[in-house]
Amino acid sequence: MAEVKKAVLAYSGGLDTSVILKWLGDTYGCEVVTFTADIGQGEELDSVRPKAQALGVKEIFVDDLREEFVRDFVYPMFRANAIYEGEYLLGTSIARPLIAKRQVEIAAQTGADAIAHGATGKGNDQVRFELSAYALNPDIRVIAPWREWDLNSREKLLAYAEQHGIEIEKKKGGGSPYSMDANALHISYEGGVLEDPWTPAEDDMWRWTVPPEAAPDQAQEVDLTFERGDIVAVDGERLTPYEVLARLNRIAGAHGIGRIDIVENRYVGMKSRGCYETPGGTLMLKAHRAIESITLDREACHLKDELMPRYAKLIYNGYWFAPEREMLQAAIDASQTHVNGVVRLRLYKGSVSVVGRDSANDSLFDAAVATFEDDAGAYDQKDAEGFIRLNALRLRLGRRRR
Amino acid sequence: MAEVKKAVLAYSGGLDTSVILKWLGDTYGCEVVTFTADIGQGEELDSVRPKAQALGVKEIFVDDLREEFVRDFVYPMFRANAIYEGEYLLGTSIARPLIAKRQVEIAAQTGADAIAHGATGKGNDQVRFELSAYALNPDIRVIAPWREWDLNSREKLLAYAEQHGIEIEKKKGGGSPYSMDANALHISYEGGVLEDPWTPAEDDMWRWTVPPEAAPDQAQEVDLTFERGDIVAVDGERLTPYEVLARLNRIAGAHGIGRIDIVENRYVGMKSRGCYETPGGTLMLKAHRAIESITLDREACHLKDELMPRYAKLIYNGYWFAPEREMLQAAIDASQTHVNGVVRLRLYKGSVSVVGRDSANDSLFDAAVATFEDDAGAYDQKDAEGFIRLNALRLRLGRRRR
Amino acid sequence: MAEVKKAVLAYSGGLDTSVILKWLGDTYGCEVVTFTADIGQGEELDSVRPKAQALGVKEIFVDDLREEFVRDFVYPMFRANAIYEGEYLLGTSIARPLIAKRQVEIAAQTGADAIAHGATGKGNDQVRFELSAYALNPDIRVIAPWREWDLNSREKLLAYAEQHGIEIEKKKGGGSPYSMDANALHISYEGGVLEDPWTPAEDDMWRWTVPPEAAPDQAQEVDLTFERGDIVAVDGERLTPYEVLARLNRIAGAHGIGRIDIVENRYVGMKSRGCYETPGGTLMLKAHRAIESITLDREACHLKDELMPRYAKLIYNGYWFAPEREMLQAAIDASQTHVNGVVRLRLYKGSVSVVGRDSANDSLFDAAVATFEDDAGAYDQKDAEGFIRLNALRLRLGRRRR
Amino acid sequence: MAEVKKAVLAYSGGLDTSVILKWLGDTYGCEVVTFTADIGQGEELDSVRPKAQALGVKEIFVDDLREEFVRDFVYPMFRANAIYEGEYLLGTSIARPLIAKRQVEIAAQTGADAIAHGATGKGNDQVRFELSAYALNPDIRVIAPWREWDLNSREKLLAYAEQHGIEIEKKKGGGSPYSMDANALHISYEGGVLEDPWTPAEDDMWRWTVPPEAAPDQAQEVDLTFERGDIVAVDGERLTPYEVLARLNRIAGAHGIGRIDIVENRYVGMKSRGCYETPGGTLMLKAHRAIESITLDREACHLKDELMPRYAKLIYNGYWFAPEREMLQAAIDASQTHVNGVVRLRLYKGSVSVVGRDSANDSLFDAAVATFEDDAGAYDQKDAEGFIRLNALRLRLGRRRR
């Protein structure tokens, strides 16, 4: 095992990464730098610094990356209408590249030769962290303790913590039985009873959305304003990207919107059950499709639809910093110039529907052409005959042969 | 204009096709055969035959195609998880090829040299009818009166009807202001106030679903059983394809499920607003994705996802009987061998969610591998390191160059 | 028929367009502006102006578009490695958008309300001209005499010419029996004996390449230098885009390189036989793939390969000025930053092969990693085990089920 | 390391696999079964059995898989017109799944619990062998000595052989400096001077084809007859699949056809230089495209072209026995029903061209429609106007907006 001088650890302040912090020093004899990012997970980060200090860390980074996260990662992804396997809005996937990017930057800044993370060897997150890190610094050393050590249960972790004098806060209520992850876009749940795909999720598992049954009996409408494919205002109020998403999370969460419960295919080869709450993102996707429906050219729309599954898969698998993702992004972004306007959504007890869409200068909807009434010559119905006959020519020749 | 001896008219018994019936005889001097299909539109067809007789028709076909429609058209399409432009379940599109097919068969049977339909020159349906007809009989003559005559308003049609002694039933309540179409899969609404995409649909427009607000306060669960990708039972009761769809329409409609309101891109080049109710189909799609989530291989799933937009576009544009649709169908069908099992859905006030999925013999979900707990060696976490390192190799070489 | 004031005619000085010139004035009573482009077709254009003057034309445009053609149309297309139906390098297709663009510009400049062209109603060129024109000026009127008049044979054209005092030069040798088209990228042949796909092309048909049998007995090597995917030098000599292509046409033509003989699928629905000489383009494609082979990331390469058929089809069908072509171009161009270096080709009696490729700063070929010899730890063979095992996991789970 | 009882080794009789044979026994204490396949590599296999016996092997399999190889692997692949990265005909890739399949069968038959192969840890072949084996027997143990041992040079292998009494034939002329692989479809060369992509391949490296300069001065024509996409006769003589390929290898090799020299992207992440001779395959691909050009529907052809790169990549990467390959094969095979007829090729000094194609009953080429002469009404040129106008509509609406 090559020597490690200094490692930047993605540190949450919880049990796992506190144990890793200690274990890194013991195992590799290296100095540890901690890095904690605020990406909108909604947890208090004030206690992270004193905890790290108590464990002897000298270089401690606690960064607010919320705006960068939504502006440079979430927004570009939503321009693509990205959904993985028909259901999943990629809430965890999209955060990993940013964390790895900052971790690699801190390594450069602090002269560290390694980074470390607390993701397990079974999941997608290890892949996303490491592909991102390698893509940004091909010589970085990556340490993934879960793939190396034998502390493969909560009991062993607790024993190690006690043995090494790591103070662990008792979580209120005894902690969640689920493996959870949160950021400004979503919160996820895995493990526990979810490991049987026939067993329903428990009602009290969900944290960001009320049950649809508990949502208001009155529907609410919300107007979203788009510029070049991105939401810039909610109900007419101009907001930053993070503010938009935070606002939409609150609004949609209150109406019980954005829960999904799926079995997904992990990049490492297995199927796994996951439950996700993406309240704001659910509104964003619905509204983005709707504004595109009046401002985007048909074939541009269809090309985007055909490219999307591949784009979503790239993000799911951890290839954000790969040239093929950048190529697809270039194509997607090139389509968004005219995606400007307002969409009105209606939220009610778990579902969201589009009730209006408008674009002052960029609409391609031409009522004069589309009308069922007399169109005053805007469209010559006789053109359709030639259109059909030439499109049919190959089919007719094909049938004659049979 | 080449002579026409006999034409098979797709006849509904309503104003438009009654006028066409008369107009065909007057304009082409041809005999007219009428053909009316029951494809689950839910209208009484008993009066069609006497109406046609009253207009002097000698050869009258009224066919029940409901099972054929669902079994041979709707079901294969749902195996593909087909959605057009992210929203539309292709309810109208999928019915047209069947009608054209039967029309061409009747032409052969009755010695007719032409078929006629009542679709306008602005819409997709003319294309779907005619591409299907030409693909099945390359020498058939197609007559599309709306592209030929000058009866381009309801007033002119009524005048023509009166002038030619065509009796028109007054619709109750004065008729709908919308252009509507229905079959076992859906009912559609276009025109009227919908021609402004900012104007919401009127509450009393919808016919097959209750408003979510009026749906029961109690959620309902329903179990769908799949065999080779097709639903064969509802809540354990074995049903024919049409029975399945009819049952699901009732169940989902009662919970306000399946409404959409979109602007779509027509094949003839314009955007148009459409509202659709597809209650049963909405459940079918959700459940099919869910049963695939545990029984379909990851890459088979992803290939299906990438092919789907093109497949959906082919159906939307009218290419059901085209070799490229048949090629895609062969690929899709080849993936469904193991898509067997049960999905439990939960319906509540306009939305549907998956609460369980199970497959006795075909599940690829392996809890032993996926577990967050000790997996007793089912998966070696160390494998992940090599997996990531080789996937990262090209990215690292790429970065070194920069 | 709406009135036409002034039409810009794409004028070659030959029989067809001279007749059209006259016919336009007679039929539409409009003034005619002529436009003739030098796009490298290799014909003398000096006589075009006097001919047009002799026919009474007042506004005559003869433009040298050779550099614009190669720089802005041919080069971007070759970045995509575009080939239609596995064989055709799109020589005719890529020239049409430029001609239409200039024609629309001249219309704006001269106050013309229409453009006219001499393409027939059966071919692809009418589509390419008109889609381009409409995309650039949605209100332009297009006149396609071949779809309107009854002069549907050479005899009728000659009679019309004589009758209207149009002087026609006798072509040396009685003219070609083929329908031909040429520009800097290629020359094409259709019609005549080629209308039977079993009949070989005649030896004396080909004009730009010697027969392979007549090529030198000595192979020749040529070095092509690339910058960002474009060729900027030949054998070390820096050249403009048009100069590059002209030089390569001469070199490759002398070695009998670049002939193809195919049956292709036209956009209007029929199959047609075409023979093409694309000597320079054949070298460009081969060399571009070779320089990409050492400088382009694997997945970027594969994404380009998957997008290429669609991109080629768009160009073939006339959609150069469509948003979906621009999206694909954005993706393709985004991949070319590092496509820099030199490729050495070997030309011999009709075939071209790659004998070397090098890139001083942008090669991704890492001999230290790739070597069959000891690689001093550049690559850890043990990584392959985990790589394979995780890629195999889903296949193993799939087989267990069966 | 779990115990191994018996291993089936893919055995060639050469140095490497003889050492592996011994090493397996020594390292794992297991019995070894040898398996040698004749897949048309053109080597004498008579000496394999005595060699294995001399090394103490009791169960020895030498199987003639030539017909199965061409019929069930090569032919289906050529239906797809498969080319990897624009150049490579997948000669090595397509043989590996068959070898693995037979190896797994022999394991079942002999009660072996492992298979072993002599592929290195850097290449694609290990992946192809192992993915195929795992896909067919998820519980098989795979032993890849090159990834385990430290015999990482020819010298160490020779020393080991001497030390363990393994007799090694001296290759005539001292052996090739290249790493080579051959089967009925191709022979490949890697390593040696090829490890510098600027260095040309040496003239005396190539074994199956004469240099184009040494090919006959007279061109040769050859007729290939297709049934459902497969070649069934050469110059009118009906042959089995293997006989076809062997015959075409001889014919094309004599004309110097089928050499390529490329840098390719390996699945394990690096670029590598490879030279390949695929004489017969080069004819097969050219001819298959030509017969499809007159018998395959346009959109079926284009769909195949778009799916091809992905299909080729699957085979290159070793996913022959994966469900997504089977799905694509189903689509491809569904397109080949009418791919019947004859193609005439012309071979001359390294290049092959198509000079004729004909299909008695399945041609879609309709001279009456395609002709430049009067078509007697087979095609109405006026149809083109409507076709173009409706295809242009979205472009015109798009431009109006700008």
TrEMBL record, chains A, B, C, D:
L-aspartate binds at residues 120, 124-125. Its EC number is 6.3.4.5. Residues 6-167 form the Arginosuccinate synthase-like N-terminal domain. Pathway: Amino-acid biosynthesis; L-arginine biosynthesis; L-arginine from L-ornithine and carbamoyl phosphate: step 2/3. CDD domains: ASS. GO terms for molecular function: argininosuccinate synthase activity. It catalyses: L-citrulline + L-aspartate + ATP = 2-(N(omega)-L-arginino)succinate + AMP + diphosphate + H(+). Coiled coil: none annotated. It is an enzyme of class 6 (ligase). It holds the Pfam family Arginosuc_syn_C. Belongs to the argininosuccinate synthase family. Type 1 subfamily. This is Argininosuccinate synthase. It comes from Spectribacter acetivorans. The lineage of its organism: Bacteria, Pseudomonadati, Pseudomonadota, Gammaproteobacteria, Salinisphaerales.
